[in-house]
Amino acid sequence: MKILVTGGTVFASRYTAEYFAAKGHEVYVLNRGSKPQSANVCHIRADRHSLGDVLKQYSFDAVLDVTSYNEDDVRTLNEALGEVGSYIFISSSAVYPETLPQPFREDMECGANSIWGEYGTDKLAAENWLRENVPNAYILRPPYLCGAMNNLYREAFVFECAEAGKPFYVPKNGQMRLQFCHIGDMCRLMELLLERQPVQRIFNVGSPETVTVEEWVRLCYAVLGKEPELRYVSADVPQRSYFPFYDYEYVLDVSRQLAIMSETAPLAGALRESYLWWRENRGLIVHKPLLGFIADNLENAEGTKWSRGRS
């Protein structure tokens, strides 16, 4: 197939481009050329917000839109495209209001989520534009993505702590649950959607299993052959100051995905892939000042802000 991937230089879009190129497809990436390009892809150098006629000369069997964040992004891209077969948009689980009963299903009414704010409402606006103007588009809603090429300061933060032999500070009692989607699983589902063209157009994607914060940290440390010394932080300390996830627990129903793709990658394997990539690409991580906050506010605050026992 002749496939266009938006972006193609960072994490999800880069992994997607390389995944489909490795499968033998003719992959084009659309970006401004400000970062190194992957091997075995064709680079279309352009700003997606001022495309003009640059894409009109191409016809694509599929467009994998990994980097649209709002209605304007999807509208300007679609208006600039020439002939296109299938269109897949990577949305987000942030389109589900936190007030809905869980697990979130694709047929639930979406809306504002107070945790995700404009990120979620902008993604929903992009979805709505596509549903009105590109009714055959597929929409994927992942939770937290993980795996190789993840440049976000999530598992990378835990790997840094494990490598340095630091204790790890987890929120409250460590039992908040997280749901992940291996980036490879998302690519496999996109591949199956292009092959099978199912009638359903919106899919939650991710592992059917959730893990607690404590379990996730232990899995990350285990990749380095280590066991963490866990310290449990009281609820009055802002969670995002010392921990890479919001104080927000949610679960997606991924039954639609499992009907097409029955198996998903184990989280331990995804974290292993992430670690191997991180070990060789540390300079690409988007760091946040979590360690500085811990040093200034938690390391010498025993008995007031954290405990060795669960709160």
What is the highest CATH level, the class of one domain?
Answer: Alpha Beta
CATH topology of one domain: Rossmann fold
- Name the helicity range: 25-40%
Oligomer: single chain
**Percent of sequence in beta strands:** 15-25%
Return the structural class. alpha/beta
The tally of helices reads 9
How far apart are the termini?
54 Å
For the record, what is the CATH homologous superfamily label of one domain?
Answer: NAD(P)-binding Rossmann-like Domain
Radius of gyration: 20 Å
How do the SSEs run, as a string of H and E?
EHEEEHEHEEHEEEHEEHEHHHE
Largest beta sheet: strand ordering: 3-2-1-4-5-6-11
Mean pLDDT: 96
Give the beta-strand count: 14
The biggest sheet amounts to: 7 strands, parallel
Under the CATH scheme, the architecture of one domain is 3-Layer(aba) Sandwich
Which stretches are low in confidence, meaning pLDDT under 50 for 5 or more residues running?
none
Morphology: globular
Short précis:
With 311 residues, the chain is of the alpha/beta class.
Describe this protein with a few key phrases.
seven-stranded parallel β-sheet, 14 strands, three-stranded mixed β-sheet, Rossmann fold, 9 helices, single chain, 311 residues, alpha/beta
